[in-house]
Write a structure and sequence with these properties.
Layout: H1 14-31, H2 49-63, H3 78-100, H4 112-147, H5 154-160, H6 162-178, H7 184-196, E1 199-200, E2 205-206, E3 211-213, E4 219-220, E5 225-226, E6 231-233, E7 237-239, E8 257-258, E9 263-264, E10 269-271, E11 276-277, E12 282-283, E13 288-289, E14 298-299
Parallel strand pairs: 1-4, 2-5, 3-6, 4-7, 5-8, 6-9, 7-10, 8-11, 9-12, 10-13, 12-14
């Protein structure tokens, strides 16, 4: 005897479906009234992250004016266009910095006019430092070219290398970080992180002739100090030994110091605020370090044993 077929559920009426949608919307609106940080209903009380990303792109254009496409550049001479772009970036950055100062302990209670005045001062200092940033990036460009036999020219590095892009954004963001501008530096470097897979905190101190080779998966923590002529490969972590202390560790040295002329190969992890890698040292692939290394040392992992046997090319 054949089994009796299960009855098909009768679909709800359109009116019932719309009622369910209205109820879901009501519940979501009610959820915003819980007073949690995620319930913030004031979109103009913090910087506009999308605008900060646009500013980041424009600041990179100012660093490399002849390499990146300039909107409307067919209308202006290069000098006129760059002058207009500089002024435009200044005005937009003043607005975003003024908003971000709400999160600075010294300006939380200040009126908007006071914050805007301080923002203009900070932005003026920031733009005055860009020529020095550009010189450092010229050295980074040279270090990348000299250290990569696959590079066919400086143009290729500027246009295509994620390492130089991440360094460029970081050096710009680092200047804002030094000026104690809240939020904006981290938005900038996380933008570069998303673009390249390279995560460098804007607080990290990086010397001259810094080279990132390949780069994907690199992590450089906030209190890291990197000397001159350092080269880092993909997958390297310069991190904290432990973050269990949470906010109690704010402002304390948690990340390592890398002295001059050090090379760190792929997959190495160097952790801890007391860890110092001495000058002229080489850290091999997959090394895990939580203590200091003297200058002129080569640190490697002992060769792992490889087993060979006949097979069909499949792992069992």
């Amino acid at each position: 005897m054949a089994e009796k077929a299960n009855p098909v559920n009768k679909p709800e009426s359109r009116e019932a479906q719309e009622a369910r949608l209205r109820e879901a919307a009501r519940q979501l609106l009610a959820d915003y009234d819980n007073g949690r940080p995620i319930d913030n209903m004031h979109p103009y009380a913090q910087p506009d992250s999308a605008e900060v990303l646009r500013l980041t792109d424009d600041l990179v254009r100012l660093v490399y004016p002849g390499y990146l496409t300039q909107p409307f550049s067919h209308t202006y001479s290069p000098e006129h266009f760059l002058g207009a772009l500089i002024e435009d970036c200044m005005i937009r950055l003043v607005e975003q910095v003024s908003i971000s100062l709400r999160y600075h302990a010294d300006y939380t209670e200040e009126k908007r006019a006071v914050r805007e005045g301080r923002a203009r001062e900070l932005v003026a200092v920031f733009f005055a430092r860009i020529p020095e940033v550009r010189q450092r990036l010229q050295w980074d460009l040279e270090a990348t070219y000299d250290g990569d036999p696959a590079a066919v020219g400086y143009e290729e590095i500027v246009l295509a290398y994620p390492g130089l892009y991440a360094i460029t954004v970081n050096r710009l963001a680092h200047e804002l970080f030094l000026l104690k501008v809240p939020l904006i530096p981290r938005i900038m470097t996380e933008y570069a992180h998303r673009q390249t897979g390279i995560d460098i905190h804007p607080g990290a101190t990086i010397g001259k002739y810094f080279c990132i080779d390949h780069g994907t998966g690199i992590v450089v923590g906030e209190t890291t100090v990197i000397g001159d002529h350092v080269k880092v490969y993909q997958g390297v972590t310069l991190g904290a030994l432990s973050t269990r202390g949470g906010q109690s560790l704010r402002g304390k040295r948690r990340h390592p110091t890398i002295e001059d002329n050090v090379t760190i190969y792929a997959g190495a992890s160097i952790l801890g605020g007391e860890t110092v890698i001495g000058q002229n040292s080489v850290i091999g692939s997959n090394v895990f370090l939580t203590r200091s290394v003297a200058p002129n040392m080569r640190v490697t992992v002992a060769n792992q044993e490889l087993n060979y046997k006949p097979g069909e090319g499949q792992f069992e």
